Amino acid sequence: MPTSLPHMEHEPHIMWEITPLAECDCFYVADRHKTAFNYPIHCHPEFELNFTEHAIGVRRTVGDRSEIIGDYDLVLITSPDLEHVWEQADCTRHDIREITIQFTRDIFPDSLLRKNQFNSIHRMLERARCGLAFPLPAIMKVYAKLDDLATHCKGFHAVLKFMEIM
Question: Which residues have a Cβ under 8 Å from the Cβ of 144 and sit 6 or more positions away?
Answer without folding.
Answer: none
